[in-house]
Each structure stands twice: as structure tokens, then as C-alpha cells.
From TrEMBL:
Protein name: UDP-N-acetylglucosamine 1-carboxyvinyltransferase
Organism encoding this protein: Companilactobacillus futsaii
Pathway it works in: Cell wall biogenesis; peptidoglycan biosynthesis
This protein's UniProt keywords: Cell cycle, Cell division, Cell shape, Cell wall biogenesis/degradation, Cytoplasm, Peptidoglycan synthesis, Transferase
Residues where UDP-N-acetyl-alpha-D-glucosamine binds: R92, R121, P122, I123, D124, Q125, D307, I329
GO biological process assignments: cell division; cell wall organization; peptidoglycan biosynthetic process; regulation of cell shape; UDP-N-acetylgalactosamine biosynthetic process
InterPro entries: Enolpyruvate_Tfrase_dom, Enolpyruvate_Tfrase_sf, MurA_subfamily, RNA3'P_cycl/enolpyr_Trfase_a/b, UDP_GlcNAc_COvinyl_MurA
Function, in words: Cell wall formation. Adds enolpyruvyl to UDP-N-acetylglucosamine.
EC top class named in words: transferase
UniProt-listed Pfam families: EPSP_synthase
Main location: cytoplasm
Amino acid sequence: MQKLVINGGKKLSGEVTIGGAKNSTVALIPAAILSDTPVVLDSVPQIRDVKNLRSILKDMNVTSEMNNDVLRIDPTKIQFAELPSGKVSSLRASYYFMGAMLGRFGKAVVGFPGGDDIGPRPIDQHIKGFEALGAHVENKHGQIIITTPEEGLKGAKIFLDMVSVGATINVILAAVKAKGTTVIENAAKEPEIIDLATFLNNMGAVIRGVGTETIRIEGVDTLRSNNAHTIIPDRIEAGTYLSLAAACGGGILVKNIISEHLDAFLAKLDEMGVNLEVGEDSIYVKPSPELKAVNIKTMPYPGFATDLQQPITPLLMQANGDAMIIDTIYPKRVKHIAQLTKMGANITSENDLIFVHGGAKLKGANVSADEIRAGACLMIAGLLAQGQTVINHAENILRGYDQVVWKLHCLGADVKLIGEDDLVES
């Protein structure tokens, strides 16, 4: 277990550069096995999820090498392998190997996916999509076993019962080499899906309509990577640092941002009275002494992202008045609340509603980061709090935030990571 020790209560300033999107990266790495040539990904975040996905690649005889933020993946000697539940169960996004292996081998055996415990995230829509393409799916002893008939996968029309980023991505990965045309209706629209489609199209795939409710895929026989793919900036990391800057900043420049990806989030900051200067690819956050409370409702993109409801919570605590948060995506995403109350926060939850009462003075405490975004929330709260905060299970923060300790040091924060950190390896 790793611990993040924060001596808070000081104003931060300087600049921070946002890394590549975690939610793109965890789809692009499995997608790389669809290529018949080596793949180069640029702007890869140095996060624990990347290390875990590379370990899964190794089980399939796929070599990978990471140099700073450049990841080289060579799938040319790939071998089919059953992916053990031990590695897969610790990482939710490993379920993208189901679609990728279906596209590559026409079969997949994957341990039931795990990840953060933030409420039920069923994969029934993924399975529905695979079955529509002609695959047979069964769950045996905690493993998902997917097989296809001899003639392989065939294009189909698939209507997702609910907007699902994971199911949309998995069906794209499975369908990109299927025979004929696949149409996904009620598809998710997230920028990370567009990023994945751009990567695949540059290798010869034919995917149209990403970013809309209807995606059309014409199956191709082969995919070949000819150029490095630069991953889009992480809008969730960007939103987290913008919240941090507004809550405890004395003037912070957040660089490498696509502001259009944050429209709903920025609108709420503006409504709160946060003083922002939005540039072409950066946002400068000025000190904002007078903040007012706002209500937040998370929605599928382009609405307010569920992954940002926890990071914005410490900022709401600094506002005048009472705020309410409704998370329509993961209403059980409330584990941070008990930890914040240890720090003196006036925050409660009732019937899947979160009530934040502004004005409370935070004090350092011993808390636990039970998942990525809760950890980010506690990190910002710790920077705001007077005294020392110790965040246990800080490895969960490292799963989603690129070089977070170094970036906080650059802003003048007094933070220290205790425990082995084996993230960076070649």
C-alpha cells in the first residue's frame, strides 16, 4: 500500500501540463493487437493502468517498450492466450481485450473485469453487441468465454439499450474486421471514442459517425500502422487540476487542454464565479475569492462527466451556500464522503443525492482513497486543509493521474509519496 502525505494550507501557483487521456489509452493499448505491424503511441500517461495493460500484452507474447511518454507495441508475434482473472480483475478497462481478441482471433477468454468499486457496471451491452455479430458468449467460473462460428463475425445492426462508453468501444474493436457493415445506434459520443476511431482509421479501418448517436463500420481484412498516434489530452485530469487551481491556487496555468471537451465542466466553474482565461490550448485560473454554490448533475458526454463530480467537490466546499450533486451515471459513487467528514467537511448523502454545505474549514486527517476519483478529491481536500493529511491506498490515484507527485511539486505543493513506486520501466 502506498501513502500520499500532504502538508496543506498553502497557496499553489505555476503551471501544469496535462498528459494523454487515460480513458483513451486503456482502449488504444488493447486495440493495438489488431494491427499487423508495430504500433507507436505518443503522449501516453505514466499511470499504473498502462503498466498493468502492458503486463497483459506480455502474456500474449506482445512486446512493449515505454520511453518517457512514447509506447511502442509489437503485436507481430502475438499468440492467443487466456487472460487470467488475477490481472484482469484488478483493472476494469481490461475488458477491451474481449473485443480486440475477437477482432484478432475470433475468440476470447477473459477473467471477469474488476476496477473501482463505484456501483454496478454490467457488461450485458457488450455481450449483446458480440452476440449480434455472431459470437457465442458464456460465463464459466468467473471467466467470459467468447467463440465465433467458422465463417467468423458478420456485421449487424446493434441498438445499445443504454449509452455505454465501454460497450461502444468493445463493439467497435470486434466489428472493425468483421465481414460487412456494422451499425451501432445509441452509441456513446465521448472524445475518447473519437480518438480510438482516429487511430483505427489511420491503420485502414472504415469507421464513420463517431461523436454522434450512430456509428457505421465497414469491416476490413487488415490493419497496418504507419505513423505514431498522439493521444488526446486527458479531460478528467484537466478538470481535476482546474478544480485544484480554483480551490487553492494563487494563479495556475493548465496547459495541453482541449477546452471543447470540458464545456459542461467549464460552464459550472463559470457559474461558480471562478476567474478563467481560456486560451487556444490552455486555461489560466486566477484567484477567485468569492465562489457561489451550484448544483451538478452528471450526464453522458457532452454533459458533466461523472469522473469530475468528486474532484469538484472540494471546490464546492469553498463556496458560499449549499450545493447538491446528482450522479446519474454511478449514483453509488459516494465513498469519498465519509473520508471528507474526517477532515471536517460538512457533506452528506441521502437517496443517491450528495449535499455539500460550503464554508467548512478542513483539517488534516488520515483518510483512504478507495478509487481513482475519490483519491483525487481527497488530494485536493488535503492541499486545502490545515495540517497534515495522509491518504492511504494512494496507488489508486496513480492508476489515473500522470506523474501526479512531480506535477504537484511543480506547483509548490508539499507532498510526498511513501511506498514502492515501480511505475516507470522500459
